[in-house]
Each structure stands twice: as structure tokens, then as C-alpha cells.
Amino acid sequence: MRLAANWRMESRALLLTFLTVLCLCELISESHACNCLVNHPQTKFCGADFVLRVRILERSKFVHPDTTRSSVYRYLIEYRTEVLDAYKGRDYVGDVREILVHSPDAGGLCGVSGLWSGDVYVISGRYVRDMFYITYCDLWFEYEKLSDEQISGLMRDYAQNCNCRIRGVFGIVSIPERAREQALALDKSPLWNDGSCRYNPVASLYYQTQECETKYSHCAFINDTCMWARTPSYDLCYKARESIWHRRNIPPKVSALRRRVRCNPNTMPFLNRCMSAKERRQRKRLEAQGLAAEVPTPALLTMLGGQSSIAPSNFMPVAGS
Questions:
Q1: Of 48, 104, 207, 298, which is least surrounded by CB within 10 A?
Q2: 259 alpha-carbon distance from chain centroid
């Protein structure tokens, strides 16, 4: 009886452990089911069927009556929106003032559930099965948080440069050894700009700086090649980010600079600091004998260009320096 009871208890413990692991696996798989590349807004704009500025009027859950649809297109979040502007996809929107926008009702399916009633957003997505369909991988920015350069991109710059390819190099936060010496010689990192539209937001996050390309630039065709467009805001952001990289990767040379300043032969008050300890002791002994002004030390001769033929009267006494 006791053995049977122990066996039942152990069986229940094993079953509970198995169910716990199974549930954890389901949670992990669900949380990682939505995988999106971190693309530049220009890339998302060019790949979308529509890009709209809308005000959220109402949010609700919606189950499509067509049971043959997959769960991705059947169990949905439905947003009733007011169309304020159409940057792309006017043919899908037409002249209507309100449209319904749908998204999967599950985070694991890349559903967008965080659009709040009354707020204004820029959204992009696909027109699928007569639905305006958005996912986590598309644009869904709060309009009031966009920079002037991003608004200009939505209105004009992104569409005009869709032929340019933005190259993602996600995860590169350090410089390879083969390129390190060249980077140090140029005093410039190749993490964000190598003469093309390199997009590396992970490195910006690693150095805890703004993502300059996302906020202040777009990839444009300039001088027969595609490169990041230069704007005043982008230049300021880029210089600030480079200075942070510089401080963390290039050792300072303050000590050498200070020594050059102190040992400048034209600054007589600093000559004593450039002597060795032995020379300073020797000069103190000569000062005690009143001969310091007549006998220059080797260090002083070196500071003054090694001119040993200079008359003793040309040297200032230490007491008067």
C-alpha cells in the first residue's frame, strides 16, 4: 500500500513537471513567434500597400464570419479610424473619411494592440482580402513624436528614393581588427557610415545614443550612389554619436599634450618641471652657493635648443622665474 501510494505521488509530480515544462514551452514559442527585422521607416514605407495618418476612434475585437480563414485573418483587433492623410495607397482608401483597420488578436502573430482611442498615428500595412491589415512589423508611430525629417520623408523623400537599398548590419557593435587601425587613423568609426546606406540601430542602442538614421535622414541617390542624406539635425546627431564612440574606443592623449605644453622652451616658469630629479637637486645645491645663474643644467640646454655656447648672462635665475 505504501509503495503504491509513493508511486502515485511520484507519478503526479512527474505529470505536474511535464505539464509545467509544456506550458513554458508554449509560452516561449508564442512569445518568439513574431519575428520582425528592424527596418528603416523608408524600407517599411516602400514595401507597404498603404501609409496613412489616422486618428483612432474605437477599438474592439472582431471574428470574421468566414470559418475557412486562418486564425491570422479571422480573430482580429478592429480599429475604427478617421483618415487624416494618405501618404501612399490613396487608390485603396478613396474619398472615405473612416475606414476599419485590422490586426491579429495575438502578440505571437505580430498583432498591434497598443493604439489608443483619440491618438493620431502613422500606420502602414497590406491591403489583404478587402481589409486594411497592419502588423507589429509595419509602421505604427505616434505622429506627434515624429521628427521634421521623418514627416518630410513620409510626404516626399521616402517615395522618391525607393530604388535605393538600405543595408542592415544588425548586431555589429565593434570594429573588426582588420579595420580597426584604419578607423583609428581616420578617427572615425565605420559602424554607421561606410559610404553607403548602412543601417545599424543595434550599435546605436549599444552606445546609448539616438538612432540618427531613423530620426533624421533617409537613403537618397546622391553623386551616382545611394547614401544617407545630410541634414543639420543628422550632422549634429552623427557627431554626438561619434564622440561617444571615440571616448569609449580611443585612449586619451592628455598626458602627452600636457608634457609638451609644460616643456615648451618659450615658457620659462615651466622649465623646472621638465628637469629630472637629479638635475633639480644639482640646481638647488648651486642655488645655495649662488651659482645657479652661471651654470646651466643639461636639461636647460636641451630646452633652449642645445646651444651650449649661450653666455651665462642669458639665463634667468630660478628665483626670478
A1: 298
A2: 37
Residue count of the chain, please give it.
Answer: 321
What is d(CA 32, CA 40) in angstroms, rounded to the nearest whole number? 21
Give pLDDT, residue 250: 72
β 198-199/167-168 pair status: parallel
Phi and psi, residue 305, nearest 5°: 85, 15
Cβ–Cβ < 8 Å for 73, 54: no
- What is the CB neighbour count within 10 angstroms for residue 150? 22
Residue 299 C-alpha cell reads as 636639461
Cell of 125: 500595412
Q: Flag whether the pTM goes above 0.85.
A: no
pLDDT along the chain (321 residues), means of 10: 44 39 37 76 96 97 88 90 96 93 88 94 93 95 96 96 88 69 69 85 90 96 91 94 84 52 53 64 76 53 48 45 43
* CA distances (Å), origin 69, targets 76, 78, 149: 12, 16, 40
Residue partners of 110: CB distance under 8 A and separation at least 6: 34, 36, 104, 135, 136, 137
Quickly count: other Cβ atoms within 10 Å of residue 272's Cβ: 16
| Distance from the Cα of residue 103 to its chain's centroid | 29
C-alpha 233/C-alpha 230 separation (Å) is 8
The values of phi and psi at residue 5, to 5°, are: -65, -40
Smallest CA-to-CA distance from 217 within 231, 207, 237 is with: 231
Neighbours of 214 (CB within 10 A): 19
**CA nearest neighbour of 172 among 185, 187, 186, 189:** 189
Four-point Cα dihedral 300, 304, 307, 313, nearest 10: -70
- Give CA–CA dist 235/232, Å, rounded: 5
CB 52 within 8 A of CB 89: yes
The backbone torsions φ and ψ at residue 72, rounded to the nearest 5 degrees and listed phi first, read: -65, -35
C-beta separation of 125 from 36 below 8 A: no
Which one-letter amino acid corresponds to residue 117?
A: S
Helix, strand, coil in percent for the chain, rounding step 5 = 45, 20, 35
